[in-house]
Give the backbone structure.
Amino acid sequence: MSGDGKRGFVWLVGAGPGDPGLITVAGSARIAEADVLVYDRLANPRLLAGAPPETERIYVGKTLDHHTLTQDEINALLVERGRAGQTVVRLKGGDPFVFGRGGEEAEALRRAGVAFAVVPGVTSAIAAAAYAGIPVTQRGLASSFAVITGHEDPTKEETSIDWAKIAGGADTLVFLMGIGNLELIARQLIAHGRRDSTPAAVVASGTLPGQRVVTGTLADIAQRAAEADIQPPAVTIVGEVARLREELRWFDNRPLFGKRVLVTRAREQASALSARLEAEGAAVVEMPTIAIRGIAEPETARAAIATLADGEYAWAIFTSANAVDILLRRVAEAGRDARVFACRIGAIGPETAAALAAHGLRADIVPAPERSVAEGLLEALAGEDLTRKRVLLPRAAVARDALPEGLRRRGAAVDVLELYRIESPAADPAVLEALAAGEIDIVTFASSSTVRNLAGMLGGTLAPLRGRLIASIGPITSEAVREYGLGVDVEAGEHTIAGLVSALREHFSASPSSHRQVSPR
Ligand code: SAH
């Protein structure tokens, strides 16, 4: 026990097989409360982000043949931190008690009198198979499965694997850590009674965007895995169920599977796009090219809000979700609420309308999704008499003049309220390197500012993007891309994030000959 009397505690937490969504609710709650996080190579780095910033993170990663820390050292570390009164989360890939040496850690803690508990995890033995479309049991095909180490402890004098028992012990056999020994494993299973035509599958980096699967039979699986240069971590599934992948494959055949996609939106906005892309199977790399900074003087904003509340404006027209969110924040800061909108409301498109709806405001006018531009908004307002009507236009500092000019031509008195500025954050050198090395497959642009700012980061050119697939949210953004001499491969029909993602999905679902080329390079 520590001096301040706080009792230490060690949680042995299963991190799941790789996909960060596969940690348990209990596991992620423990991470959020950790003083110390002790993790290794198989724990997804994204899970570490769930710990408070002040949490100490200790990497004790292991590779097959060299340990950053020996198991004894890890045990000693857990004991020491527990004794010091800290809340320790020992995060382990998959399930802590399935070949995770979690049992040894628990024994060490018990011996030292340090309190501990176990949060089980989703083991790769089952999850990697599932993500390959292989159920480990299946009525009529397999009524039992066994999980077996394929990597004998090299310090052991003699093998503890009884091949005769293993080969016939269960219908489905799942080998962990067996990539280096695949040939030996297959030979032993055949020698002990498994037909050489038994289906087998190797799943590497299962549940992750880089998942790779090789299928075959006991006769050829080792050779096929070697030819495909399969690298650990991988599980090998042997048994009739391995055949089911042919019909049950669902994860690694999604349209964007394995594609590395660059998201250039502002940090605050990136996650919605990233999540949608990931749902289609993409491996997302985020590098914000814009940052949104509120700029309106408190006095200016306050005055506009008062005028709005007084019913002086006939219309408030929003051309971005940012403008909605920032103005409503100002409204709240002024001690008011959505009732200040004593006017009709226009939104340039569905996302802006959705941002309004999130604040309980329904847009009176929204152009059709494929007309989510200033001109579309003006068309949608065609039936309205705007003569001598006051219109409030809350928006970004540097924006197109098409809308205010169009409204003024119709006789309106337009007040532009500049709420925010789009700035250029520093580029992430790792992402620039990946771009230069051709490691990014798809670059997405959700606004023309992202195009210009990425070009700025690349030294005033988009040349390093040549050969990458370019996806744009709409015509204005595409035009900005073309100004840099680059073509646009995919343009969203509906100028929204959902539209951008569905255009990409269609592009990659279509047969190569029917790919829609917006402007050939
Ligand atoms: N406790 C872990 C297993 C640790 S042993 C669990 O329950 O999953 C490490 C072995 O797990 C690796 O050699 C590999 O066989 C398997 N493994 C872990 N993560 C994997 C993944 N994402 N895909 C395939 N195999 C994985």
